[in-house]
Amino acid sequence: EQQISGLKNLVKSQVVLDLLPAIDNLERALKHVPKELEGNDYVKGVEGTVKQFDKVLSDLGVEKIKTIGEVFDPALHEAVGMEDGDGDLEVICEELQSGYIVDGEVIRHAMVKVKKEATK
User: What are the phi and psi torsion angles at 9 (to 5°)?
Assistant: First the structure.
């Protein structure tokens, strides 16, 4: 029974990993919508599709890793850029690609930019 459960989790993780590039592309497209197209029916459709993906992933027990404003954690985040700051605390200031956790295991680290801030 443990083997079956482990196999199910492995298959679920692999299916999610296979879907992530499509989800990433939709999210990237939404980040670059020209001002004159904001509110356009096509854009609303893409937004609805992203929300559908998010719901399906959530229903499968997939968690998006929290990023912006969070303290950088190398177990969850991959820093691909650093901004100068005035402190020692590494805080995430920008998310470049979402990261995901399935059944408590990171299947993809979040790609982020980090800024040094004063301790809160």
Answer: -65, -40
Alpha carbon dihedral 51, 75, 67, 38, in 10-degree steps, equals: -40
More confident residue, 79 or 119: 79
pLDDT band, residue 120 (cuts 50/70/90): low
Q: Name the pairing type of β-strands 77-83 and 110-117.
A: parallel
Q: Please give the share of the chain, as a percent, with pLDDT higher than 70.
A: 99
Strand, coil or helix: what is 119? coil
Q: What is the SS3 assignment for 29?
A: helix
As a whole number, mean pLDDT of residues 78-106 equals 93
DSSP 37: G
Q: What is the DSSP string of 51-118?
A: HHHHHHHHHTTEEEPP-TTSBP-TTTEEEEEEE--SSSEEEEEEEEE--EEETTEEEEPEEEEEEEE-
Domain covering 2-117 assigned CATH 3.10.420.10 in the classification: no
